[in-house]
Amino acid sequence: MNRIITIDGPSGSGKGTIAGLVALRLGWHLLDSGALYRLAGLAAGRAGVGFDQSQVLADLVLGLEVEFRDGQVFLGGEDVSLAIRTERAGNAASKVAAVPEVRAALLQWQRDYAREPGLVADGRDMGTVVFPEAPVKVYLTATAVERARRRYNQLKEKGLDASLADLITEIRERDERDRSRAVAPLKPAPDALEVESTALTIEEVSKRVLDKVLETYPDLRDEGA
Ligand code: DC
Known about the structure:
5-stranded parallel β-sheet, alpha/beta, about 15% strand, single chain, Rossmann fold, binds 2'-deoxycytidine-5'-monophosphate
């Protein structure tokens, strides 16, 4: 299965939105890998497992009972869709994501999402580690302030509490942790299309990505994409 599009980038760069739009437009599967790290972070916090207990964390991840159903996420039967979207869960995710054993535990799980008719995978290392053979790779960025502003609006829309100043600080800290970790650091794949989205609309970004997709898979035009 080589119909894979990877969309990587830092927090708040718009990857999730763009990946969702592209997957919907093509009728392809969607992998939100950040959700898996968020679930791992949430489960670790609840179980009281420290971020330094790498093997315990990896075993915890392998035992997670996760279900994605009707746009909601369930952990052990409980709807945790909102719980995994808080900044606290995002920070816990970023910490468990720095543990090599956790990343190894999630690797095959993520690769199993590659199914016909195709997959759009969103994360930090989709193009560099999980699907290095993907024919279309995108790396989305925006300034930290713009990304914090987007996150602020998203959280407010969901009725969650937020402070813009705190978000800017947290985004910078998380960027630093995601970029500097030893294993699978956040960085563009050498063959990725880089899109700086600070001054672009969602439509403009998704058009650039879809243009690249149709250039790579011209047969999709005949399929009506
Ligand atoms: O995309 P997100 O904000 O939901 O991701 C939450 C955290 O998970 C992020 O700070 C880093 C980590 N992550 C990762 O290390 N690798 C991925 N492929 C996806 C997310």
